[in-house]
Amino acid sequence: MTLKAFHFAGVASMNITLGVPHIKEILDAVKKIRTPVIFVTLECETNVKFARLVAGRIEKTNLGQVAESIKIVMTTRSASIVVMLDMAMIQDAHLSIDANAVKESILQTRGIKLKQEHVKVLDVRKLEVVPEEADRSRLHFRFHNLKSMLPNVIVRGINTVQRVVINEVKEEREDNKYKLLAEGTGLLAVMGTEGIDGCKTTSNDVFEVQRTLGMAQGF
After folding, report:
1. Are residues 67 and 131 in the same domain?
2. Which domain holds residue 118?
3. Percent over 90 (pLDDT), the chain
């Protein structure tokens, strides 16, 4: 089934396996289903702005998605990688991201191997990365390798949630309600996110529900 809904940054659709195919996945005990989706209930269900805000907290966002530019800047005396954030896009998407948050995300990312002194916040939307390399002959390679890795740094959200759409549920005698559909896994992390009613949030992945809530809930 293709479900049309509002992506928190626009209009989107999501394919969800239902009916006989999904029943077959359950009966065959498929541990990795084709379209895992977490059905999220919000603490405030009638406010679309609140829904967008919470969606931004759980959808995985990479630095490359919110950066205006990531450039290697070289002078006769120094070289660095300058990251410029697209603050207009960040605000439109209701993401709580600035240069300080990006710095912390970079430092926590495995494989990049940078220390506090290697990443400098220049202002709220701009930061500078100066990698350390003992072997001067490898410095050029280090810069270009780091530049290729930075766009993949996760700066917001849950790394197993690929996408979130907002589903508007029309009510006849009440205000319309909004629910989130999170494409991916990570039920426990989603349930614990601020603004989400964890008691009313579930997943179509019975094995994840079992791991998170126990055998009785999963089956």
Report:
1. yes
2. 61-156
3. 59
